[in-house]
Amino acid sequence: MADFTYRLRPAEPQGPSILASERAGSNVHVEQLAGHLLWRNDFLQRQKRIVAILERIPIFSKKNQLNMARPDRYQLGLARAKSLRRLSIEHGWDRDDYLMADYLVDEMGPYALQTSMFATSIREQSTDRQRAHWLPKLERWDIIGCYAQTELGHGSNVKGIECQARWDGHTKEFVLHSPTVTASKWWNGALGRTANHAIVVAQLLLPEPGSDTDSDSPAAQDRGATGSRSRYKSYGPHQFIVQIRDMATHQPLDGIVIGDIGPKYGYPAMDNGYMLFHQFRVPHSALLARYSGVDADSGAYMRPQNPAVVYGSLTFVRAQIVMHARLVLARAVTIAVRYLAIRRQFADRDHNHDQKTTPGPAPEQAVLNYPTVQIRILPLLATTFALHYTGEAMYQLYHGTREAIERSGDFSRLAEMHAASSGLKSLCTTLAADGIEICRRAMGGHGFGGASGMIALNNEYLSKPTVEGDNWMITQQTAAYLIKRMTAVAQTLGLAPKDELDLQFQEYLAVNANSNTNGNGAGNTTATAPTPSTRNFDILANDAELVRAFRHRASHLAYQAYRARVVEKKPWTSLMINLHRLSRAHSESLLVSHFHRAVFESSAAGADLDLDEPTLDVMRKLFRLFALFTLDASASEFLLSGAISLQRLQAVLPTVQDLMAQVRPHAVRLVDAWSVPDYLLESALGSHDGDVYNRLFRRAHRDNPLNRWTFNPDWRSEEIVMGEGAENARTRLDALALGLDNTGYERSGLATTTKSKL
Amino acid sequence: MADFTYRLRPAEPQGPSILASERAGSNVHVEQLAGHLLWRNDFLQRQKRIVAILERIPIFSKKNQLNMARPDRYQLGLARAKSLRRLSIEHGWDRDDYLMADYLVDEMGPYALQTSMFATSIREQSTDRQRAHWLPKLERWDIIGCYAQTELGHGSNVKGIECQARWDGHTKEFVLHSPTVTASKWWNGALGRTANHAIVVAQLLLPEPGSDTDSDSPAAQDRGATGSRSRYKSYGPHQFIVQIRDMATHQPLDGIVIGDIGPKYGYPAMDNGYMLFHQFRVPHSALLARYSGVDADSGAYMRPQNPAVVYGSLTFVRAQIVMHARLVLARAVTIAVRYLAIRRQFADRDHNHDQKTTPGPAPEQAVLNYPTVQIRILPLLATTFALHYTGEAMYQLYHGTREAIERSGDFSRLAEMHAASSGLKSLCTTLAADGIEICRRAMGGHGFGGASGMIALNNEYLSKPTVEGDNWMITQQTAAYLIKRMTAVAQTLGLAPKDELDLQFQEYLAVNANSNTNGNGAGNTTATAPTPSTRNFDILANDAELVRAFRHRASHLAYQAYRARVVEKKPWTSLMINLHRLSRAHSESLLVSHFHRAVFESSAAGADLDLDEPTLDVMRKLFRLFALFTLDASASEFLLSGAISLQRLQAVLPTVQDLMAQVRPHAVRLVDAWSVPDYLLESALGSHDGDVYNRLFRRAHRDNPLNRWTFNPDWRSEEIVMGEGAENARTRLDALALGLDNTGYERSGLATTTKSKL
């Protein structure tokens, strides 16, 4: 019998006709809103142009990715990375084109460090002489680089890294050495199999004046690991540029052990690596010496001119993560909204339909019509826009700060930016990471399937709450800044506010400082301070009051933290949970403020919104939905700060539910505006045309390699693939389980010729 | 140069010595607590015995799993499933032994349906005659089965499935038919590649009396899909047992299309499948007819004796999921506690150490000492015990209910059990699933790595919030039960309570009913009902009051729901969010109540706790920690219900922080008591001996197949593996990306001989 499935269609109504009527039922202006969101750098046209190129090239197809062995994913990743580099030249891509292609391929690949941390270090930390030597090689991609900072034993605490760079004054060399297993470099992208050069971060060890540093003798070399330590002084972590592999054989150089650290949650195509040194010598010129260095003659340390330079670059990375979060969450929400508008499940329990006009059972409802689904998805839809406007604000702050530093060496805004970027990195990546999973779960069974497009998205993004400053750790930096600012305001009451934060804190103190400082709970503020005066902002009827409620709650927590730390001198560690909550409250206040300003004060702020009235009206509802939903999630903090009353709180959920009902008809058009191409979504559930079930079925029926094989299900036989025989199967699967056959490679015939000598 | 890494050790202090001193610093009685938790079915001895067997067999090694292609994972899964079956016979395993082995292998494999839904259906839904025919085949495993209920278009709403079983009175056969693509069976485990028999759930279509059902003619057959529908009446979903594949060739039978649906979030070794029928005929005996059937002569329907039977079996599955959750969460918490006790990061910010006695930098702190880490991990540690005691309570309820049904056909407790199991399934799987990810994130970079042991655990468990009743959907069932019970109590005030829930509701109503019913907000209870009388339970000083606060809040939400639905007749759909919150509140109240009873009223309840005083003391602290942490997370509901005051709430976080400091020294011993073997943990971070860094390093350096190959990193060349040449690489990677080479199989030489004819 021929395959009869080709004749079949999904049950009515068809996905495409559902999305068509969803789109017809809303007056949100998609093109206008898309242009409003994605105007920068000609994003939309660029995206269209690059997608068209990538879609035609077989290795950029993503359809088989989830079937592959991890070593194959790396190989495909390397092939793609090379191809992107060649396409750049072929099509004359500029940097934005290249970044767009990288974004669309949606894979952290083996060249990812080349244009980021490797290039950044060379550019920013090198002397002019070093730049002249390395930049041409970098720009021609004659060398492939990575950035080796974190170690097996130390991640966030960079000062604690163990890798040593000991100065040998006799040979004028640095001796790189890993004294322990934990000193092994670890997690460094592109190091494991790809890079031939690395920026190595190591403790700079210089001889104590007058000590004997005859490190040429073998005995002294051994002491280098342990015994000689006391005669050297560490000047902290410094960057060295080091060739790590032979340029012809690609084997690690003698005295270096390198490898890939193995599979992880996401990033299958990236060879995160480990590396250890054994008394490995590099020349004096290896130390990147723009801001600090070692005098080759005297072995004396030359101090950095401005330590804030390093500090600044992490800040910029965090700002970029904040700016990126909106598009990640938009992907998940796009898939969820489209699929849940199409998916039908259960009839309304109270539905009383007329059996005469419509015989048969009551019609099933679109899943997105259920409030229990809306409460998970629609606030996240609103969050994409909240992230957008805060990303835009970060962009302004980023470029303003950067320009001030580069033009006039003015670092004054760096502290504000550092505080904002730390707290927002923590909050925004948590919102996006959790949001992806909330979307996935809302899609039920099909959300769990590979055709959802959610698996890679989730796995990859789950690194973001950890990297570039753990989300729970870096909130201390934001809180410390706020305490400092609150201290200044509290101790100079009455002065003119120098910025919005001053004003916000002053307003809070004007009402609350006395009741708190004179209260009987002074000895134990965080626990039993009297409830502050209830402001009870009119959050439901007045949007500006809603913003004020967020500011008030943040100010309250800042004031509590100031009291505890500055006035009562409590241990920092004991306050950490409160500090985390403070950072979150402040960051939520920033999100709400930026969103409010964008949709209510556009002309005042000088930026034209370019949105017609119906679209703007929906955006304002989304603002209210985001703010009230966020408030409800931390309602007790608003109550404790006196920002709202219990009575007011009771009306929040009904209002949220009402707002969701108003936003619901526009959901499909709103996600359309994010303009995420099908190529990037890689989702049968979320494609623009809504042909969900045909795509799901075809993917399983045509594109699933497992279905090309017939297996022997009989437990009495050890045979697995029909016809291979029991003995073959046994040998093959033992080797597979133990990882002895390279997961397919020994079998492929490639194994004998190309095995590494490592 | 020889591999110098073998000489190296991790930096001091070593993991094993840290865990030794952690263990020495607590007086929790590990063996006693382990026996207390895991006494049932001789769990601990059985676990030890089975681990020893599995650890010696190569295919049960898990170390290469994350490197494998998905088709290889299926094959390994099939080999393991067969091996477990053979081991059962070889070692004379009983059912508990087999289940233990399955639990330890920790993989949903291709035989998983055989002893569960396939066997259950045959045993429970068959007539005696059907049993006599099928049970011997089932028990000898001559047939391999699956359970085909859910479809591409319908999951939770079983009544909506489209697959048809039309009775043909002429031939006395049922005609199975899939009229649409969405009628395709979907997600059914073991169907895709393994099973040769299936329980197929289809709409039973019987001819309307008097209609022409000449279905033998080809024309009528075509109408079977569409036109003839009106002449048939559906009697709803029924189960049929169907042979689906040829027993010799293992090809699908003519008229059936089957395949695996492809990769998904977890379960790589399970072949979840799809299946469509084209006018496929099965005999009258295929309908499993214990409770309902079709008269072969008249074609008349015979009604089910008791519809609650089917309903009961889902309830039992949910109860089992609740009972299982504790061990899943215990695994994640074990890994997190051990690793975070070993991992050092940063010195205390306020540390002032004496440079004379301890020169050098201040010592780094164990990460688990930071309150921001404790607040994520230690409440979850407490949650493992909360889940345990509720699991035990469910076990009692389960067996009591089951016994009542089987012995005397008494279904009276089924409604209570259904409500409890639905709400608890939702809450407990959410707690466990979210808890796994919270643990993983708390472990920073290494938590993201494959050697954490968290990847598979997370991926697999993420199905649980969706399967067997979506966690947001089934809470309606609990809420409906609670509304029914509240209605009965509210309308019969003054009667003697028939159980604890009656008493709980009566207590609430005694204080609050009047203030609510007479309030001015009667028309809009959920939004603006007056705040109920503040009870302000003494949650911090009195454990019984803490339990009462949870019951009060649940009663309050039940009363609000009753008012809205029963008194004010609001639409069910509009109340769904409130109903979800009600179910959660009630379920949390159950967790807190069971935990409290177990550690405070053991003698009263008749079960001897068998714990010495120091251990019991820690358990009581864990109870307080769990309850107060849970209360804090939904604090606004407690405030709104009047269970506590704002003033009281302010003291909750400091109390939680204090409890965590008291529990912290016992954390390692507490997770030890869960007795999760290293074989199951499969984690370098969480192994019992604490040798974290050596394990992490060895795994990367020895056991990572990617490191056996040398790659060509030069972007100018299309060559990938060194030496293979550009042309080979291009062909190979194009095929890989498009899934054309079966992810390695074509290359292996196996491809040509065993390709399926599908």
Automatic annotation (TrEMBL), chains A, B:
<feature type="domain" description="Acyl-CoA oxidase C-alpha1">
    <location>
        <begin position="311"/>
        <end position="483"/>
    </location>
</feature>
<dbReference type="GO" id="GO:0071949">
    <property type="term" value="F:FAD binding"/>
</dbReference>
<comment type="similarity">
    <text>Belongs to the acyl-CoA oxidase family.</text>
</comment>
<keyword id="KW-0276">Fatty acid metabolism</keyword>
<dbReference type="GO" id="GO:0005504">
    <property type="term" value="F:fatty acid binding"/>
</dbReference>
<dbReference type="GO" id="GO:0005777">
    <property type="term" value="C:peroxisome"/>
</dbReference>
<dbReference type="Pfam" id="PF01756">
    <property type="entry name" value="ACOX"/>
</dbReference>
<dbReference type="InterPro" id="IPR009100">
    <property type="entry name" value="AcylCoA_DH/oxidase_NM_dom_sf"/>
</dbReference>
<keyword id="KW-0285">Flavoprotein</keyword>
<feature type="binding site">
    <location>
        <position position="189"/>
    </location>
    <ligand>
        <name>FAD</name>
    </ligand>
</feature>
<keyword id="KW-0274">FAD</keyword>
<dbReference type="Pfam" id="PF14749">
    <property type="entry name" value="Acyl-CoA_ox_N"/>
</dbReference>
<dbReference type="InterPro" id="IPR002655">
    <property type="entry name" value="Acyl-CoA_oxidase_C"/>
</dbReference>
<feature type="binding site">
    <location>
        <position position="150"/>
    </location>
    <ligand>
        <name>FAD</name>
    </ligand>
</feature>
<dbReference type="InterPro" id="IPR037069">
    <property type="entry name" value="AcylCoA_DH/ox_N_sf"/>
</dbReference>
<dbReference type="GO" id="GO:0033540">
    <property type="term" value="P:fatty acid beta-oxidation using acyl-CoA oxidase"/>
</dbReference>
<dbReference type="InterPro" id="IPR012258">
    <property type="entry name" value="Acyl-CoA_oxidase"/>
</dbReference>
<dbReference type="InterPro" id="IPR055060">
    <property type="entry name" value="ACOX_C_alpha1"/>
</dbReference>
<protein>
    <recommendedName>
        <fullName>Acyl-coenzyme A oxidase</fullName>
    </recommendedName>
</protein>
<dbReference type="Pfam" id="PF22924">
    <property type="entry name" value="ACOX_C_alpha1"/>
</dbReference>
<feature type="domain" description="Acyl-coenzyme A oxidase N-terminal">
    <location>
        <begin position="30"/>
        <end position="144"/>
    </location>
</feature>
<comment type="pathway">
    <text>Lipid metabolism; peroxisomal fatty acid beta-oxidation.</text>
</comment>
<keyword id="KW-0576">Peroxisome</keyword>
<dbReference type="GO" id="GO:0003997">
    <property type="term" value="F:acyl-CoA oxidase activity"/>
</dbReference>
<feature type="region of interest" description="Disordered">
    <location>
        <begin position="209"/>
        <end position="231"/>
    </location>
</feature>
<dbReference type="GO" id="GO:0055088">
    <property type="term" value="P:lipid homeostasis"/>
</dbReference>
<keyword id="KW-0443">Lipid metabolism</keyword>
<feature type="domain" description="Acyl-CoA oxidase C-terminal">
    <location>
        <begin position="544"/>
        <end position="716"/>
    </location>
</feature>
<keyword id="KW-0560">Oxidoreductase</keyword>
<feature type="active site" description="Proton acceptor">
    <location>
        <position position="468"/>
    </location>
</feature>
<dbReference type="InterPro" id="IPR036250">
    <property type="entry name" value="AcylCo_DH-like_C"/>
</dbReference>
<dbReference type="InterPro" id="IPR029320">
    <property type="entry name" value="Acyl-CoA_ox_N"/>
</dbReference>
<dbReference type="InterPro" id="IPR046373">
    <property type="entry name" value="Acyl-CoA_Oxase/DH_mid-dom_sf"/>
</dbReference>
